Amino acid sequence: MAIRYPSPLRPGDRVGVTSPSSGVAKELRARLEVAVRDVRDRGYEVVIGRCMDGSGHVSAPAADRAAELMAMLTDPGIKAVVPPWGGETAIDLLPLLDWDRLRAAEPTWLVGFSDTATLITPLTLLTGTATIHGNNLMDTPYRVPDGLCSWLDIVAAPPGHRFAQHPPGRRRSPGFDDFATFPDVREYTLDAAGTWTRLDGSGAVEAEGRLIGGCIEMLCNLAGTTYLDVSAFARDEAPEGLLVYVEAADNDAFTICRNLHGMRLAGFFDRANAVLVARTDAPDNRSLSQHEAVLDALGSLDVPIIADVECGHVPPYMPIVNGAYGRIVHAPGRSELTQTLG
Predict the structure, then answer these.
(1) 47, HSE (Cβ side, Cα atoms, 13 Å)
(2) Which is nearest to 304 in space by CA: 266, 277, 337?
(3) How far apart are CA 334 and CA 342, in angstroms?
(4) Are 215 and 88 in contact (CB under 8 A)?
(5) CA 147 to chain CA mean position, Å
(6) Tally of helices (H runs) and strands (E runs) in the chain
(7) Strand (E) or helix (H) holding 15
(8) Could you tell me which residues are beta bridge partners of residue 306?
C-alpha cells in the first residue's frame, strides 16, 4: 500500500461539503455561504450534503453521516470533501465506514482538523490516501499570511509538488472571531508574537520522514485500535521514519500529559524522527504547563520536539498533508516545514 495522492483539482471539479461531526447553526449560515462562495470563486462546483444541521452536537444520526461521507468519498465526480469544521463525536462513524470500498475507490482529498482528525488520520493509515490537516471550510475566507498556504493551494498541486511553509512570526492571542456578527471577516487578528520553540534541548534541528498526526483529544481515543496503527504504517510505508505532529485543542495540561503517555505506550511515536507540537491556548495547571506536559510524556523518545507550530487551534494555520514526505528545519533565523506530495 503506497501513499495515494488524489488528482489535482481543476476548474469545474466538484467539492463536497458535509458535516461528519457538528453541523452549522442557523446564525452561522451566512459565514458558510461566504466560505462556499470563495470555493466557487476558485472555479469549483460545490455540492452541499444533507448532513449539515447545527441544532445539536452532531449534524445527523451516525448512519446518515457515514453514508453521506462514504458517498462523497467514493463519487468519482467529487474531488475533495471539506467539512465546515470539527465537533465532538466523529468517532461514531469509524465502524460504519466501508474501509475496503475506500481502499478500492479513486482517492479523494479529505480536508479538516480538530474532530475531523478522527477521520483523516485513519483514512491515511488504513487506505494510504493522503489527507490534509488544516483549514476547515469556515476558515477558508481568511487571507493566508505570508509563509503559509491554504488547502485550496494543496488540492490543486500536481503530483510530486514540493512546497515549504514557515511561521509568519505572528499569532492570535486567545479568542475567536464572531462569525454570527461578522460573517465576512477575512483578516486574521494576529496580535501576538509567534515563533517555534525547541522543547527537548537547544541547537539546530533537521529531520525528515512521512508526516502523520492530528488532534490529541481525538486521536488518544483510538490509540491501540486498528484505526490508529501508526507502527504498522511506519513499517510498511515509512522505512525512513516519521515526522509526527500533535495538537491540543482545549484540554488542560494534566489531561494532555496523560493522553500523550497513552499514545506513546500504544506505539504512536515509535518511529518518529521528530515530533511537532502545535501552539495551543489550552490551559496550564498550577504545577504543569502544556510544554512540560509534552516533555513529561515524550521526552524519553530522545528525538527533537518542536513546539508552537501553526498546526492547531490557534490561528494562523499551516496545513499538513498526512502521508506526504516532510523535512523540518529549525535553526537560528530559519524555521521551515517542506512537504513533498510523493
Answers:
(1) 17
(2) 277
(3) 24
(4) no
(5) 18
(6) 9, 16
(7) strand 14-17
(8) 198, 276
**Residue type for position 1:** M
- Alpha carbons 197 and 64: distance in angstroms, whole number: 43
Q: Provide Rg for the chain, Cα atoms.
A: 19
Nine-digit cell string for 21:
461531526
**Residue closest to 269 by CA, chosen among 239, 293, 244, 248:** 244
Cell 465506514 found at: 97
For 198, other C-beta atoms within 10 Å of its C-beta total: 17
C-alpha cell at 28: 452561522
Give the three cell numbers for residue 282: 489550552
In the numeric block, the cell 451516525 is attached to 62
Look up cell 514557515; give the residue.
166
Give pLDDT tens digits for 270-318.
999 999 999 999 999 999 999 999 999 999 999 999 999 999 999 999 9
Beta bridge partners of 242: 210, 272
Q: Is the pTM of this model over 0.90?
A: yes
